[in-house]
Design brief:
Distance between the termini: 91 Å
Helix content: 25-40%
Order of helices and strands: HHEEEEEEEHEE
Largest sheet: 4 strands, antiparallel
Radius of gyration: 35 Å
Shape: elongated
Number of strands: 9
Oligomer: single chain
Number of helices: 3
Length: 178
């Protein structure tokens, strides 16, 4: 009986572990069928060929901004005329124009609220930055701020404060400059 019982336990353990082996065998066969983990020489050759045919050209513009383009062919060129450009497959990209500060002056005022006067001024300046960005796509320049009064919002200091800031500024031109 003991021999039979030991053989029985050994057989059951083997059956319990056999599902692990069959699962592992299935994964190995599945990967082999998909050629996973094996980069054949045919794939390496195709990859090397496409990388060798790729050209990239870069031009540093007078403003310091680089313009680049890439092509799967050898049709890349660049030049310095008209402010600089790059060309790939017949498509030319010019350098953006350099920025100058416009002469038109704008004035905007915003107020902010916060737990302290400093926090209220910070919020007002942040709102002014959004106003300038909306008017000036390339950014503002030659700006000056005038700080207004900081007044309490209520009888207690814990009620917070309101502060105003007035900004006079110009816009960088042209709108697409960098």
């Amino acid at each position: 009986m003991k021999v039979h019982g030991g053989f029985y336990r050994w057989g059951m353990n083997l059956l319990r572990q056999s599902w692990l082996w069959s699962g592992l065998l299935g994964v190995v066969l599945g990967l082999a069928a998909c050629n996973a983990g094996d980069v054949g020489s045919e794939e390496e050759g195709a990859l090397g060929t496409s990388e060798a045919a790729l050209c990239t050209v870069e031009q540093t513009c007078p403003s310091g901004t680089p313009v680049t383009c890439s092509s799967p062919t050898t049709g890349c060129a660049s030049g310095a005329d008209n402010g600089g450009w790059v060309e790939c497959d017949g498509v030319r990209t010019y350098c953006p124009p350099a920025c100058t500060c416009g002469t038109t002056r704008y004035t905007a005022s915003r107020y902010g609220e916060g737990a302290t006067c400093g926090a209220a001024m910070t919020q007002a300046r942040s709102l002014l930055a959004s106003t300038v960005a909306a008017r000036c796509p390339a950014g503002g320049c030659n700006s000056s701020d005038v700080l207004g009064d900081c007044i309490p919002l209520g009888p207690n200091r814990t009620d917070g404060f309101r502060a105003s800031v007035t900004r006079t500024y110009s816009c960088k031109e042209p709108a697409n400059c960098r």
